[in-house]
Amino acid sequence: MEEEKRVLLVTPHRAKEGGRREYLKDRETRSLVDTLGYHIVMQLSPTLKEENRNTYIGPGQAGEVRDVALSYDPDLVIFDSCLTPREEKNLEEVIGYEIMDRESLIISIFEENAHSKEAKLELEKARLEYLKPRIQNRNASYSQQRGGVRGAKGSGERETELLRRNIDRYIFSIERELEKIKRQREAKRKERERSELFSFALTGYTNSGKSSLLNLLTGSDVLAEDKLFATLDTTVRRLMLPGGQEVLLSDTVGFVSDLPHSLVNAFSSTLEEALSSTKIIIVLDLSHPDVEMTYEVTKSTLEELGAFEKVALVVLNKADQIDNDISYSRLLSLPIRTVTTSVKEKSGIDELLNALEEITMEDYGNYSFTLPLGKGLWEYVRKGDLIKSVDYQDIDMIVHMRCRKSNFPYYASIVEKIKASDRT
Ligand SMILES: Nc1nc2c(ncn2[C@@H]2O[C@H](COP(=O)(O)OP(=O)(O)OP(=O)(O)O)[C@@H](O)[C@H]2O)c(=O)[nH]1
Ligand SMILES: [Mg+2]
Disulfide check for 208: which of 78, 204, 398, 414 has CB 3.0–4.6 Å away? Predict the structure, then answer.
């Protein structure tokens, strides 16, 4: 087995950040590092006075990190901040150890969990875009060693340029491949939309139990694990509600606070697919010590994506391990409908299914159409809609239907056509 990497973790924080917030943020960073299977040998939390454009933290603080690094001799120093290439290079020079920043850390976790071709390509692209402005850092020592003719470009510099051009070319070919995959997916999505089934998307903070819920409800076997970002793709499954209504349920990539923008972009199309559903469900983890913050992050992410109005239900999951009763009662009084569940103990699942049914039904109406006897409507019934009963009278029959409200004009026009053709 590969030996566990030993890490010195640096979590810079601002003086004004409160103690609890800071503690929780640190906890999250530690679980990100943990998800990668790294071992934290020491953690330093320098206070940021003002951002230093050369080394991000102050020069004295950087020196302190170097001293601690020297005594622990870690494989890697992880900074819980997104560093510019310049800051990273300067810090590496002062500290003398390889540095990984928050963006690279999260990209690495995503890389470990990417299974589909699309997710793998998106990450390869994100990684290359991350590396491109940093090549010079990697090549700097090399070019210094070689020296070079004064005034002419050093061989290191030339190499950097060459590498950059190759990277550009490679990114371009990845983009072309991604375009192809997206077109195929778009076609599939359109097909699903045509099927007119009501659909729900599970969203929420990473590790809240979205995949576990999808598996329990639909008997699927999406990977559900106690690690961050276990899911990176969107999975869609059929679900039969208690009243016999069929709907679609999708599971997608989870959210986290301060998700680097490169990754938000990389996964925006995966998310879009999920968010094109009829309604959105937010899944929260009641065992999370700051479950209200995870709700806020989810809310603002959905708002940014213009999809928050679609939220119809908040599932308060992991009820078997409630961490904070006050947060729980505050969440219960959100202006959105809530259901409390535990996937682990399979509790609250009937209530959840009933809530989904009621939400679905709000979109449905009961309608009656009068048709000449013998002219059925059956062959025109769209997926998810239902003929409930038929009253046969002397010359007419009355068809009682339950259908999507948006489908009413469609049926009305068919009934008109049938009547017209009967008259002629
Ligand atoms: N105690 C408890 N654990 C749960 C419950 N539901 C899910 N889990 C556990 O929580 C962990 C995360 O579950 P997932 O279903 O992978 O969570 P997710 O929201 O899909 O996470 P990402 O895909 O990483 O965004 C797993 O270890 C589950 O077994 C629950 O009701 N109670
Ligand atoms: Mg998942």
Answer: 204
